[in-house]
Structures are given as C-alpha cells and as structure tokens.
Amino acid sequence: MYGICRSIRRRDITTTEGLSENDELHPLQAAFIEHDGFQCGYCTPGQICSAIGMITEFQNGLPSAVTKDISAAAFEFSNEEIKERMSGNLCRCGAYVGICEAVREALDTEVRE
Is residue 16 part of a domain? Predict the structure, then answer.
C-alpha cells in the first residue's frame, strides 16, 4: 500500500464527489441519474471516473481497439466503442444499457460542444 501512496504524491486526484461545482452535478453525474445508469451504486464511482477518462482520451485523439482512426469528421461513438472503452468496469446489477446511454449523453454534451 505504501508504494501506491508514494506514486501519487503531489498530484491532483479527482473523485466522483469532486466533479460537481457549486452544488451542481457534473453533466455525467446528471446523465447517470437521468438514464438509470446505476442500481445498487457500488460500481457507479468507477463507471463515472472511467467515463471521464474515456472522454479525455477521445478529446486527446487516442484510438481504441474498436476504432483505430478517430480523426474522421463524422466519427460517432457506437455502443461497441463505448463498451470497449469502459470495459475495465463491471456492473453486477447489469445496468449497462443505462450506463451506455448516460455516457453517450455526456459525449454529446462534453465532446461535441
């Protein structure tokens, strides 16, 4: 555990709770609520943090195993693309449909604006 703590010293860490500003939910948090992207809530913080990372990766032009070239002007996130980029998080309740819908909404507001 000590080695892990040492590796993050002097770096900013944003948790799910730290995404909101002025008592306003982050658009991704609001989308998870609107699209029922959670059931028990156990995986929700990880799902939201992964989605934030996925959006950042996309904005930085990083490809995925599904799409090698994201530079196309008409690039659209398919469910397959979202699932591949979010594949590190598991939901035992099976809320994947709502999670994908929430992530898609966040992509539309965060990336397309």
Answer: no
